[in-house]
Design a protein that fits this description.
InterPro entries: SIX1_SD (IPR031701). By secondary structure, the chain is mainly α. About 65% of the residues lie in helices and about 0% in strands. It is globular.
Length: about 160
């Protein structure tokens, strides 16, 4: 938590506040986090989570998928990649969010690797990272996608092809 506060203060000019009670109910909190996540507004999400304190927003009664998604975007924006990987791996998400979370998963690995190497990654390096770090089961149904078709779709298409020959 302290490292998140430090990163926020480096990237965003916010005075550290004492943790205040959350003046929102669960639905309002979900709406705020969803809106900021969909807008990809990482700076506002970092400020939002810092304002109330990570511990308060991640209490069991507030732990909804929308809050987790917002928290993950804040972690990405703050450069807390290891924590982001941990939250994604140890949480469950609905299938409609898989694409966004897989995108964040890969972009986090790219950014982490770019910061270590101090240079931008090329297509081959990105491909190798995708193979080395596949998304966890929490954000992936396990089916390989080849030419925009999932494994089950390819099997059905091939079976119909054989039937029509």
């Amino acid at each position: 938590m302290d490292s998140l506060h430090a990163l926020v203060q480096q990237h965003i000019d916010i005075k550290p506040s004492t943790q205040i009670q959350i003046p929102y109910n669960r639905d309002q909190l979900d709406c705020i986090c969803s809106s900021l996540f969909q807008a990809r507004d990482g700076a506002q999400l970092v400020a939002f989570f810092t304002q109330f304190g990570e511990e308060q927003l991640l209490r069991p009664e507030w732990r909804t998928e929308a809050v987790r998604l917002g928290y993950i975007m804040a972690l990405y924006h703050a450069g807390q990649y290891e924590r982001l990987f941990s939250v994604i791996t140890n949480s469950s998400f609905s299938e409609r969010n898989y694409k966004d979370l897989q995108d964040l998963w890969y972009r986090s690995h790219y950014k982490e690797n770019e910061s270590k190497r101090q240079k931008e990654l090329g297509a081959v390096e990105k491909y190798r990272l995708r193979r080395k770090h596949p998304p966890p089961r929490s954000i992936w149904d396990g089916q390989e996608t080849v030419y925009s078709f999932k494994e089950n779709s390819r099997k059905v298409g091939f079976k119909n092809f054989l039937k029509n020959i």
